[in-house]
Amino acid sequence: MGQIDHSVLTTVLSEEVYSMRTDAWRKLPISLTELCLDTTLRCGQSFRWRKVEDTWFCALHGRILSLRQDTTHLHYQASFSESLPEPLTPPPSAPGSKVDPLPEDDNTEALVHHYLNLGPNLTELYEQWSSVDANFKKKAPKFAGVRILKQDAWEALVGFICSSNNNIIRISQMMEKLCLHYGPLLGYIGTTAYHDMPSPSILADPKVESQLRQLGFGYRAKYLYQSAAQICQGHSIGWLDNLRNPESPIIGQKIAAAGDMQPGGRAGYRAAHEELLSLQGVGPKVADCVCLMGLGWGEAVPVDTHVWQIAQRDYKFGKGKHSSLTKATYDAVGDRFRSLWGKEAGWAHSVLFTADLRAFSERLSAKIEVKTVKREAEGSGLGGAATSKPATETKFEVMETKIKRELLQEEEQDGSVPSKTVSRAKRRKKT
């Protein structure tokens, strides 16, 4: 089998003449308590976003989407390729992924709303979760604006198969390689090429496994190829999307009821989880990641080493019959969180997961002041008698915004705690 010729790929693409249509920047009013891009796009949900200065870029649904944010608005811009060659994607014997035709009606605003899941009132959700969980109430103010994205199920599946024994930076590098060599080229921002996700049919080619091993995917190469082949050969078109939560359909489809919530989640969630376990490289955690971040099942609670540590430290797991992370303990952790936070338990758990990541250990997405407001209850008490007992409510208010514009160099390389932090810790130890 021949080696991948990176020089040929670069030369061919650099000599092609193409044109792009870039729309004007638009904006949506949204506060940092409702959405923080710097946290949401870096907390281990999606692995294809790139940040350049204050702007995030990603090839998404046939366009290059650009996002930036200030304290009051989300700004977005779309760039479409008008004439691009079919990408040079290995293996040469397989047809390349096609670029979707330029849409007649630009649906970028609808895509932004859908992808970033802007419908739910996040401040109200944080208040609800804080009211039933003191630990969440303590952690939430430093991690405001974390939203669960509505990603394509296929992208979520590929990303989380790559997540096995991996960290966010390496997963992102793998996803970039996968799109570069197999996905459709949508265009350039500056000198940086942006490729969309390759389809399952492209990765189902028998030569893909060895190619991915060449690219550094290791044992994950087999799982990606085999899962793609299973989807293409053993399931009908749209199988993954048919596992979606009907309350969270793909863009453009109508919302439908998803059934009653049970301790182990709704029936549709449990069925989707079981179906995903039939794929190569998909265990309970990966299945839950895909259910939560690719299929819209908010009650899915992925339990990895971070979440297991949180469960032991803050929720009294790690003793007795739940002293180790067995299948029974995995289910018990999920059930515990579902009993606390209900059908959006996975969303609430993701805030705590984010708070536990090293990359955010010294970083505030927004400085929030939590106020407990006492007010006289309006209306009457039982039996129509007036009551003077004050009601209380918790409010999250943005007092000062502090968003870091870039990661420290050490975090970029390996995700470790920055050396400056370690040095300060050592100096304190000497005194």
Tally of extended strands? 10
Q: What is the chain-wise order of helices and strands?
A: HEEHEEEEHHHHHEEHHHHHHHHEEHH
What's the mean pLDDT score? 80
Class from secondary-structure proportions: alpha+beta
> What is the oligomer described by this structure?
single chain
State which percent range the strand residues make up. Answer: 15-25%
Indicate the overall shape.
globular
Proportion of residues in helical segments? 25-40%
Q: Describe the largest sheet.
A: 6 strands, antiparallel
Q: Give the termini separation.
A: 60 Å
Low-pLDDT runs: 1-17, 87-104, 363-431
Q: What is the radius of gyration? A: 23 Å
How many alpha or pi helices?
17
What do these coordinates show?
Helices cover 38% and strands 15% of the residues. By secondary structure, it is an alpha+beta fold. The protein starts with 5 loop residues before the first helix and ends with a helix. α6 (153-162) packs across α7.
Task: Please write out the topology.
Elements: H1 6-15, E1 19-22, E2 26-29, H2 37-40, E3 50-52, E4 55-60, E5 63-69, E6 73-83, H3 108-115, H4 122-132, H5 134-139, H6 153-162, H7 168-182, E7 185-189, E8 192-195, H8 200-203, H9 208-214, H10 220-234, H11 267-276, H12 284-293, H13 305-314, H14 327-341, H15 345-355, E9 367-376, E10 390-400, H16 409-414, H17 419-430
Antiparallel strand pairs: 1-6, 2-6, 3-4, 4-5, 5-6, 7-8, 9-10
Helix pairs in contact: 6-7, 6-12, 9-10, 11-12, 14-15
